[in-house]
Amino acid sequence: MSPDTDRADPGKPGTSTDRDLHELAVKQAALGQVRGAAAVDPVNVPMIRHWLDAMGDTNPVYLDQGIAPPAMAQVWTMQGVRRAAGQHSPVDDVMSALDAVGFTGVVATNCEQVYHRYARLGERLTSAIRFDDLAGPKRTALGEGYFATWTITWHAESGEAVAEMMFRVLKFRPPPRAVPREPYPLRPAVNRDTAFFWDGVRQGELRVQSCADCGELRHPPGPICPHCRSANRAYRIAGGEGTVYSYVVHHHPPVPGREPPFVVAVVALPEGVRIVGGIVDCPPEAVGIGMAVVVTYRQMDDELVLPMWAPREP
Amino acid sequence: MRTLREDQVELGAVLPELSIELTPTVVVSTALATMDFTPVHHDVEGARAQGSADIFLNILTTMGLVERYVTDWTGPAAVIRRINVKLGVPAYSGDRLLFTGTVTSIASGEITVEVRGKVSLGDHATGTVALVLPARR
Amino acid sequence: MLRARAAIAGIGATDFSKDSGRSELRLAAEAVFAALDDAGLAPSEVDGMVTYTQDANQEIAVAREVGIGELSFFSRVEYGGGAACGTVAHAAMAVATGMADTVVCYRAFNERSGRRFGQPDARLGGQPSSQGLEMSWHVPYGLMTPAAWVAMFAQRYMHVYGATSEDFGRVAVAMRRHAATNPAAWFHGRPITLAEHQASRWIAEPLRLLDCCQESDGAVALVVTSAERARDLRRSAAVITAAAQGAGAGQMMMTSYYRDDMAGLPEMSVVGRRLWEMSGLTPADIQTAILYDHFTPFVLTQLEELGFCGRGEAAGYLQDGGIELDGRLPVNPHGGQLGEAYIHGMNGIAEAVRQIRGTSVNQVVGVANVLVTAGTGVPTSGLILSAP
């Protein structure tokens, strides 16, 4: 069950969640520019040379004139591998709030950089961040989402703005992805005599074979009615209620795909046949012969559904 | 070294294409040169665990490559004023990034080049670079 | 009529261990040599062989190893440990009908160091054979070990008759008491108390660890020939007074949950009726019984199905050492599969022969007739062996 099902849909405009998000965005925007820590290193030749080399940029102007490539603006104030995150930014709260209501996906959509001048060797830049805007919710190809926009400005020690960058991301709710499950290891063999049962289980029906000629019910099923020799087979959909006729609590040895202790029971159906199944939603010590149970269908993997039995309320 | 002057640029001029093989080395070395240590830019397993096909270029590199693409054409005398990029599909390791560009405006001494960076999945980056070139000698 | 036409003239076994260190074929050959030596017969005198369908050693392979030449009869018996007495029944039929003169029955496996029957096998429900389909109603829920299959019956038996875990424990205590004085037994010198049984961990409730037989490596072989010829051989023989196989209506392998009240073993009732009828004997004529004891609860059910006590009365029958050596019916004087070894019931037949000969280490006094049963919960078999 999705953890969101009991919550108001946060993707709907005008819902309380949507209002809360916009209120938070307005509050964060009102903080204005929030200054971060100064760059660890001043603008320097080794980092420029490394950057040019990696980019394959052979423009000699930077090292000749002692200036940094303008697109390096953000590089100077990047966090390192182990350096602690910088000061709390006004963007963080908005991102966390979006994550918390399910907009966990993120993709950058726009990056606009303005260079007032090129930074010079020896200058130590400081970034300042300003939350600009939250737009949404909007339907996008990736799913429902909000566009969050902020601006980072890089200042020289004098306070002069050297460069700024508008950055926009889409925070989206990833569509529920069918994660392929590990195949459940305990699979039934199925043939033309038994397929109707497993087809039924997949459709939420507990099918008990009946003879199309004499009406005799039979489980487990077989190809010929032992009562009248008819091969005309039909089935009746059982009501789904039963009584525990006998049971075991399996402890040892470990069984693939099952977590011990688990309970397996012979369940007597009011229709007059018995069937074996697991007991679920009930601690093993609460199971007893005579307990009223009701069928419940459990998806074991992408293909297999098993009928299990849960306690029935009186 | 060749460098363009303002009068040598005409509206509609087409920049030479630039094709970059996105080898793992390119993706990783640029991520590190831009101080971006996010695993999706250097750790294949990590990238796949997050649903990506492979490691991919980081945005700072995309900006750097756009800048390089334009200054490869202009030569060292250009001064870059702005780079505006709209980001599209990821540029995965193993793919090829092809830059094309056209001069779309020349006004008040500022030249605007429209740039498109395409990979096999589609547009990775589209946008404009505004720059200033030295005037006629 | 098969009655008293054939006899078991020789018994042989390997050591019983947890890791034989030998191939299963070698174990089979060693046991067959021992049985032929016991009977005083040469391999060349053997012309028939019978084993379990589950045995990994083909009759011809064992014949090659021990120097048995031409065979005029070979047969396999189905249904796991239910085959045990069935091999002797088939051999006796072959001898009685003239299909063969001397038949070797054998069972050899590395059940502990090789493939262990007690471990879950996810492939059990994998094939759409009739058995695979049958298993498919149980295995997907994790009901896939012999202990759990039997536990399902045991729970019902307790519910219907008010039996308790202590009642099952009394079987384990008796078997371990007998094994404690049997040097061939794995649990030689290691008796247990009821308290120890009650303290042992759950395997599949209501079965505890000490309700479950051990797992063993080893082999047992038996030589069957005509009762007449057996009289002239090296050792005294055990006459096959009666032999029977049995399957119940609605029978399944270990999971016959869809018939009757699940508190009995109808297939053992079939075997019992046939044995009494063929032998003309009654339970009062039996001095000791070898009852298949892979899991304790079915020992109670067998006492009832064979008529040693009434339905639901086995718990009372077991009280005060009822099935111990000095009790009203000593059961499994060798210690059974719980105490001696798990050789799929074949070692119990050998003990029955020793009891008839008067050569058991735990000899019951005055043995004239021994009843032996095979695997329970499956189509099964039984024998009554008698002094010549």
Automatic annotation (TrEMBL), chain A:
Q: Which molecular function GO terms apply here? A: DNA binding
- InterPro entries per UniProt: ChsH2_C, ChsH2_Znr, FAS1-like_DH_region, HotDog_dom_sf, NA-bd_OB-fold, Thioester_dehydratase-like
Statement: the UniProt record of this protein carries the keyword Phosphoprotein = no
User: Which segments constitute the ChsH2 C-terminal OB-fold domain?
Assistant: 238-297
Q: Which residues form the ChsH2 rubredoxin-like zinc ribbon domain?
A: 198-231
The FAS1-like dehydratase domain is annotated at 41-165
Instruction: Write one Pfam family the protein is assigned to.
Output: OB_ChsH2_C
Which key words are in the record?
Answer: DNA-binding
- Asked if NADP is a keyword of the record, the answer is no
Name by which UniProt lists this protein: DNA-binding protein
In which organism is this protein found? Nonomuraea glycinis
Recite the lineage of the species: Bacteria, Bacillati, Actinomycetota, Actinomycetes, Streptosporangiales
From TrEMBL, chain B:
Query: Superkingdom of the source?
Result: Bacteria
Question: InterPro entries, from UniProt?
Answer: HotDog_dom_sf, MaoC-like_dom
Q: Which family does it belong to?
A: Belongs to the enoyl-CoA hydratase/isomerase family.
Q: Give one Pfam family, short name only.
A: MaoC_dehydratas
Which SUPFAM superfamilies does the UniProt record give?
A: Thioesterase/thiol ester dehydrase-isomerase
Q: Which Gene3D superfamilies match?
A: Hotdog Thioesterase (3.10.129.10)
Domain MaoC-like stretches: 15-119
Would you tell me the protein name for this molecule? MaoC-like domain-containing protein
Provide the species name.
Nonomuraea glycinis
UniProtKB/TrEMBL annotation, chain C:
**UniProt domain Thiolase C-terminal: residue ranges:** 258-378
Q: NCBIfam families given for it?
A: PRK07855.1 (NF005892)
User: By what name is this protein known?
Assistant: Lipid-transfer protein
Q: Which residue ranges does the record assign to the Thiolase N-terminal domain?
A: 23-227
Q: Name one GO molecular function term.
A: acyltransferase activity, transferring groups other than amino-acyl groups
Provenance organism: Nonomuraea glycinis
For this protein, the record's InterPro entries field holds:
Thiolase, Thiolase-like, Thiolase_C_2, Thiolase_N
